[in-house]
């Protein structure tokens, strides 16, 4: 007899897929090369997120991000499936931000709320040749408005606009302006290892402090905000590193099958003669701080290669979730989230700390799969 306590199985995944052997994972991390992504073969990935609520209190809910982002050039979301003892479990979308998530509601009194979510996607390295302008289809008016708008944590006026105007003074055209902002981020910010998680992304506070340190959700948000302040469409793309860099950069890939803390925010800018273009100044600063032996100079060959490549290219060893800001969690009366990149859960008293996976508790595992 099936009861509420039985695992609820929802969704479907192709059973023919196979996880590639761990030896391939280890081999992939070897042999450092110059960081130079090139458009290549599609690769498929699987992430398995296991969430347990250790101290349930009253009504327990959980929200797990799934891929709602899609770009036919380099990222295709796949299927999701899950097992859980939740009373209800369904894929939902926050209509304001467009973020997709698995929303779970557990029965009051459930002593061990748990869910295991399996998600798949296909990705590849992507490069836009900025020496060969074209005529991409222009953005629809609503998409342009969405990607030039201010958000709760990314204003486009005040100190953000003033800073942006100073950076681009004397520049003309969107490519020249965006490059100036990219280089300013690389030259003037730093990756702060003490920042929790990927950072908060409050860019006005960052600029007002004068201390331009943080992690990807801070530095790339600052980049996006400075670009939007010039009325050029830009967006953060929130996701997860899933496998090592095939170029041997330890700082730019997942170096274990456990990717619980491998979240990473990238950025894209829409340039009038090129369309959506990948960019990641925050990862340049990550290479500076973390690439062995660490604390590299900006003119170090490893940094120079990443700096050149990450203006117009990136590696497809990454799983995208969404480009959402100001995310409302369905069924939760608390404040909106600045972004949705981590599993979230709440009990009757509060939203749990998503940056404390050991006590939350959640684990994320990633693998490359053959399909």
From TrEMBL:
Q: Name one Pfam family in it.
A: Transglut_core
Q: Is-annotated flag, keyword Signal?
A: yes
Give start-end of the signal peptide. 1-26
Name all Transglutaminase-like domain ranges. 208-283
Q: Which UniProt keywords apply?
A: Signal
List, alphabetically, the InterPro entries matched: Papain-like_cys_pep_sf (IPR038765), TAT_signal (IPR006311), Transglutaminase-like (IPR002931)
Q: What is this protein called?
A: Transglutaminase domain protein
